[in-house]
Amino acid sequence: MRNDELEIPYQIMDPTGKMQGAMPEGLTDQKLLEWYRLMWEIRYFSNKTVALQRQGRSTTWGPLNGQEATAIGMGAPLQPQDWMVGSYRDSGAYMAKGYPMSALFYYTRGFSVAPDLVGPDKRCLPYQIVLATQTLHGVGLAMASRIKKENAVTMIGVGDGATSEGDFNEALNFAGVFKAPAVIVIVNNGWAISTPRSHQSAAKYLVDRAVGFGMPGRLVDGNDVLACYSVMREAVERARSGEGPTLVEAITYRHGAHTTADDPTRYRDPKEVEYWMGLDPTRRLKSYLVEQGVWDEAKDKAMLQEVENHVNEQAEIAYNHPTPGPDGMFNNIFEKLTPRMLRQREQLRHELNLEAEVR
Amino acid sequence: MTLTATKLTIIEALNQAMATEMERDERIVLLGEDIGKNGGVFRVTDGLQARFGEDRVFDTPLAESGIIGTSIGMAVNGLRPIAEIQFAGFMFVAMNQIVSQAARIRLRSAGMYHCPMVIRAPYGGGVRTPEMHSDSMEGVFLQTPGLKIVLPSSPYDAKGLLIAAIEDPDPVIFLENIKLYRSFKQEVPPERYTIPLGQAATLQEGNDITIITYGAMVPVSQQAAHKLQEETGASVEIIDLRTIWPMDEEAIVNSVTKTGRAIVVHEAPMAGGVSSEVVSIINDNCLYSLLKPVARVTGYDTPFPSPGLEDNYMPTVSRVLNALRKTLED
Ligand SMILES: Cc1ncc(C[n+]2csc(CCOP(=O)(O)OP(=O)(O)O)c2C)c(N)n1
Ligand SMILES: [Mg+2]
């Protein structure tokens, strides 16, 4: 069973941009135009990072093209006091919550977070690499919000492959037992590197697991930004009102390679990719906006140019931002370095001066 | 048919080792993430699923604890699993299964059961990978009685050591350096051969000073030794440990007794690691031959840094050269 063989999950706008359900309350054309632009900011950010990686100026990067609607669904319903804890492929969701693109570029440039670029705390935990680990952190953040009686919800992102890790299952269990104000979103893009979704679990839907952990589960079309927003907003509200966690499975697709180090032609049928390209979330929203008479090709072209300029500026900011210095590996390990570490840092500084002489 | 040696990378040599053994021994199964159709993210298992079938070479759900835990069960029940963990840093996810389980099955069952399995994992820095893809964790395993730990530095050794690891009746951690994977080719005989676990290799003989090293620091040490030789005429002995448990104490002791001076080089952090053990062995056995304190050139006692900072973390030729010079001073 592949993702394209699933029954149609919850959908408001079909792939041609036709409304199959009611517009979620409070959404205006203005808002949808904003999201449409944001989708392209996310996609161009990813494309730019790939280009920088090809020039040897960025680390290995996992493109997120195709997953923009899910990303916006995750970020848009959140308030500033809410938390976001995603995987490495959820940077679109971070942007939707207001995390600056330049700060993301700084990371892909090869350094840990630059607080100056992040600005005031965005309550986005830096994404980490060990699959599913962040789901427990997210549940812990939410448990703390509950204990502290804060009006805050935690949005947690995790890949379909990562749901096989023990941590993910422990996270769901804790979330259920402690009624954590959390929304756990499985971003099911069909693949975990070369491993198809069908190989991660014998269950038809990953969201079926919600039953076993005592929480509601929602299956949603991850390429329909309206459906994503509607489902996730409802889950966020539910968490905020003290009713506990929700598990969401968003069915989407990874258009590109797993990372810049991956060759998907080894394991993926090009026909499958073509099929999903037809379900591209940007196309769908664009068709709708054109149909509404608020968008056209000329506006589209101008907007894409603006977005490209904006993305380039953001990259520029990140690449002009000061780096930690050659002994930066000693920064931010402890509040105070131990005597041994201080000696090692001295030694490194000394050796860096000598380097020129030896070479 | 006469078999002729061909030049292989470490990746190709490992692939050949597994193919050779799987051909002879039906009990061998390979499991891990993306090792089937994709041939592993580094292609070490390339073509093996097509050749040996999906029952013997299979992708697992993404779950390291699951991979190691089920490998233990399969090993106890008569198979010879070779589990691949995609990057060594993700072995931490399976630490309970490795340290508290695989390493203790023989002991716990008073020898009724044992655990003949190999855990292969790429490790090491220098190629600008993201967080947790560059860590050197051998020191952690050195602190785990019940595991053997192998770190080959050449294609020839990689093949012979992997076959020995597969043959071994106990769990073996087989750490493959990412930077060395494709960095050079070497003649590798096509036939089966083994290199005993616990035997170091003396890569070059010398009288003035000994370098004890392994993994990706072997070529770095060789370059430093070469420069030193050109510069001062000093003759350097280089020992590649190849396995750190069992550790070849005899090779270390004989060499340092002869030269009276030594440095230890590895990219893993310094505290409580392999170099600490080597220095202790020297201290226990060669104290009266020592002319200078043993120097250590290692990664710093910090987490492995972000890619933008890793060049200054990894021991360099000049750091090794400085240590050699200092240790050679009277
Ligand atoms: C614990 C752990 N094991 C293995 C990996 C290597 N790895 C990185 S991404 C990935 C696939 C993840 O797939 P999925 O969860 O579906 O997320 P996607 O990449 O599709 O967004 C793997 C196996 C890792 N990062 N962490
Ligand atoms: Mg996936």
Structure description:
The complex is a heterodimer of chains A (359) and B (330). By secondary structure, chain A is an alpha/beta fold. Chain A is built from 13 helices and 7 strands. The model of chain A has no long low-confidence stretch (mean pLDDT 96). With 330 residues, chain B is of the alpha/beta class. Helices cover 35% and strands 19% of the residues of chain B. At the A-B interface, helix 13 of A face helix 3 and helix 11 of B.
Characteristics of this structure?
heterodimer; A: alpha/beta; five-stranded parallel sheet; 7 strands; 9% strand; globular; B: 330 residues; alpha/beta; seven-stranded mixed sheet; five-stranded mixed sheet; 11 helices; binds thiamine diphosphate; binds magnesium ion
Gross geometry of chain B: globular
Category by helix and strand content of chain B: alpha/beta
Distance between the termini of chain A: 59 Å
- Count of helical segments of chain B? 11
The greatest inter-chain interface is formed by: A-B, 48 and 43 residues
Strand-residue proportion of chain A = 5-15%
The neighbouring-strand order within the major sheet of chain B is 3-2-4-5-7-6-12
Order of helices and strands of chain B: EHEHEHEHHEHEHEEEEHEEHEHEH
Number of strands of chain B: 14
Structural class of chain A: alpha/beta
- Extract low-pLDDT stretches of chain B: none
From the structure provided, what is the oligomeric state, counting identical versus distinct chains?
A: heterodimer
DSSP strand tally of chain A: 7
**SSE series of chain A:** HHEHHHHEHEEEHEHEHHHH
